[in-house]
Amino acid sequence: MIAEKMKELVSNSSVIRKMFEEGKQMAQIHGAENVCDFSLGNPNLAAPNTVNEALEAVIKEEDPVFLHGYMNNSGYEDVRNTVADSLNRRFQTNFTSESIVMTVGAAGGMNVAMKALLNPGDEVLVFAPFFGEYRCYASNVEAKLVIVPPNIPSFIPDAHILANYITPRTKMVIINSPNNPTGVIYPESTIIEIAKVLEEKQKEYSTEIYIFADEPYRELVYDETVKPPFITKYYDNTIVGYSWSKSLSLPGERIGYLAVSENIVDFKELMSALNVATRILGFVNAPSLQQRMIARCVDEVADLNFYKKNRDSLYYGLSEMGYTCIKPDGAFYLWVKTPIAKDTEFVDLAKKYLLLTVPGSAFGCGGYIRLSYCVSPETVQIALPKFNLLLEEIEG
Amino acid sequence: MIAEKMKELVSNSSVIRKMFEEGKQMAQIHGAENVCDFSLGNPNLAAPNTVNEALEAVIKEEDPVFLHGYMNNSGYEDVRNTVADSLNRRFQTNFTSESIVMTVGAAGGMNVAMKALLNPGDEVLVFAPFFGEYRCYASNVEAKLVIVPPNIPSFIPDAHILANYITPRTKMVIINSPNNPTGVIYPESTIIEIAKVLEEKQKEYSTEIYIFADEPYRELVYDETVKPPFITKYYDNTIVGYSWSKSLSLPGERIGYLAVSENIVDFKELMSALNVATRILGFVNAPSLQQRMIARCVDEVADLNFYKKNRDSLYYGLSEMGYTCIKPDGAFYLWVKTPIAKDTEFVDLAKKYLLLTVPGSAFGCGGYIRLSYCVSPETVQIALPKFNLLLEEIEG
Questions:
Q1: Cys bridge to B364: A71, B122, B128, B353, which one at CB 3.0-4.6 A?
Q2: Which Pfam families match (chains A, B) (predicted)?
Q3: Does B27 touch chain A if contact means CB atoms closer than 8 Å?
Q4: Is B112 near chain A, with CB under 8 Å?
Q5: Are residues A27 and A91 located together in one domain of the fold?
């Protein structure tokens, strides 16, 4: 008797559950230390000490009615100010508390933005490969997800190809850089080209097209010279969605924000709509205690060196064996071409070696797998020879 | 360029904002101490000390990766167990961790339940007067809110009248007891009659009709002999939504749960759907730190005596003056008949006396106002003579 729309999602979810159970069984039979699970994007780093210290200080020092109480649905004004100031300092932007909405993580933020902007039938463009949950978020507001095919082998979007997919119903383009699942960071030239195409299409169709910049991985960057451009500086109709889930290793706490360009069309009306959407979708507001913590920790970042070491071991290790890998400049994912055409077949073969991976087809791009390297360095070391044996088996 | 559906909501929201600004202006002109604001349902009690102590202990004692990390979208298993045990102990029920979903407050929980169950066009029945946000939640899933008219003067629903409003498309009935805005607690006999009507209608139409028991005020009860019946014991197709916002004075923290009858139709499929809905609506999971706190504070309650004193002063005070009030057995609202027919007119008149109230028409029931008495006892004492003057003015 569940809703029609939920039926397929529930059955997909039971497939994932089955995979998870399968992994647990493997661990029982072969020992957990021999199973290399690269399937989960779950930070395995502790939050910086300063985060817990700030939480304790907030609880001790701040008035409990204020601390645990309701505030404006968009968040505490001082916290939004702190976030705005931090962004302005780091990216030479012009945000104020008025342009920030605190959100229940990045997923909450994207749902709020879609609710505020999209009408049923509106088109949301994503570049394959893409985070599969975008399908659900678009479906929540009856919008249509339109997939721009992958630009192989760079996996950097081609703005001219994008242009072919824009119609009068296009209202949003999702840009996710550093990218899940590829780890690729889109260069400034790409952002400039995309902005140009969107400006032209807005004029051509007399519509507004919004970029939603989904940036939970913004701080997870391994090369100081390859930082993701801050998109509000290139394109006015931009909403940036952020979460501290990865940068502070707080995924369970559900704390993030939306930052809206002050030059976006109908700025004030949109900010009201985001505020109302936060309320009526049932979030009401981002968790208050975590907001207070952010007021004290806005510029903290967890120790990314941990992920960088894993990235280097896996990327160079697998490449030397003969795997074709995309070098990830950010996030904690490695995108690997499967040496056999069918990615799901490769994922099944890999299980024989106790290697758990996710097929690229789950991200709208077959023929690849995603390895999530938020795992221990030991897991990487145990996994490398297994990947070698697997390749040898395939190549005969 | 915001979504069509948002336009009216944004304009309503600016009306509320205007009221809020008006209140601030009044405070500036007349002094904050002279303005009596009964408009906000925002707990003004501090959370019990044990809550902050538990938060500090959790931060100190528990592994930070676990504490701030992802868990099953339905919540930590031990926390769900603790909630189930607490309910079983208190209400002689049979919940297990499998029947509990931790939610981002009661609003989050209701949205998750509606997403899991409702198809576009399904009908959701509410008894007037009702919490206005239900309109938005039903609209989020394209369901149709059907209003059962108020049963004046008791404001206890009449099951026989309810029966006339049930159609083959009825899929949910919301029961909110203790009630916002009336403070009324529905007696056991009413719950039994409603259950009987719903059982009959399910048979008649070969449909399933779910009760959603919205119970954020369950612990706010002023008479030990008038406790709200636990509805899963009377009707199998029941989902209970709870929040600690009021009972622990934590409205900003967004922590609550759904408890599902083990005898509900398609129990396992529904639990999966609730789990998936939590994920895809963007909540992902209830805030992890607050879940860990609940594991230690599940049976704590803030000092309700505070509200009881306000209730008594207001209820007896206004009744003696000649106002017709519904005696609230629970929640922190007083429902008062307006001495002139038009409630909005009365609300405007009251402003002259610096009394801020909410018209009943905002809850689908004109001719009444709601006074929220989560205010200081001093505010009540200052307000009483003002209400008297107001009545004298009206009665000439």
A1: B128
A2: Aminotran_1_2
A3: no
A4: yes
A5: no
Query: Is residue B230 located within the same domain as residue B365?
Result: no
- Structural domain that includes position B189: 49-297
Residues whose CB is less than 8 angstroms from the CB of residue A193 and which lie 6 or more positions away in sequence, other chains included: A159, A160
Helix (H) or strand (E) holding B103: strand B100-103
Q: Indicate whether A284 and A320 sit together in one domain.
A: no
Asked if A289 and B1 come within 8 Å (Cβ–Cβ), the reply is no
Mean pLDDT within A270-280: 97
**CB of B310 within 8 A of CB of B332?**
yes
Count of domains for chain A? 2
Does any CB of chain A come closer than 8 Å to the CB of residue B293? no
Cis peptide preceding B149, ω within 30 of 0 = no
Pair (A78, A220) in one structural domain: yes
Looking up tokens 């009690």 gives B45
Q: Are residues A352 and A234 in the same domain?
A: no
Residues A63-79: what's their mean pLDDT? 94
Cβ-based contacts of B1 with chain A (< 8 Å): 117, 208, 265-266, 270
Regarding whether B21 and B55 lie in a shared domain, the answer is no
In chain B, which stretches have pLDDT less than 70? none
Q: How many CA atoms, within 13 angstroms, populate the side-chain half-sphere of residue B25? A: 8
Q: What is the CATH number of the domain that holds B91?
A: 3.40.640.10
Confidence of residue A390 (pLDDT cuts 50, 70, 90): very high
pLDDT value of position B15: 75
The ipTM estimated for the assembled molecules is 0.96
Q: What's the gap in Å between the CA of A41 and the closest CA on chain B?
A: 10
Best probe of the A interface among B53, B77, B104, by most A CBs < 10 A, is B104
Contact B46, B250 (CB under 8 A): no
Q: Tens digit of pLDDT for each residue in A158-169?
A: 999 999 999 999
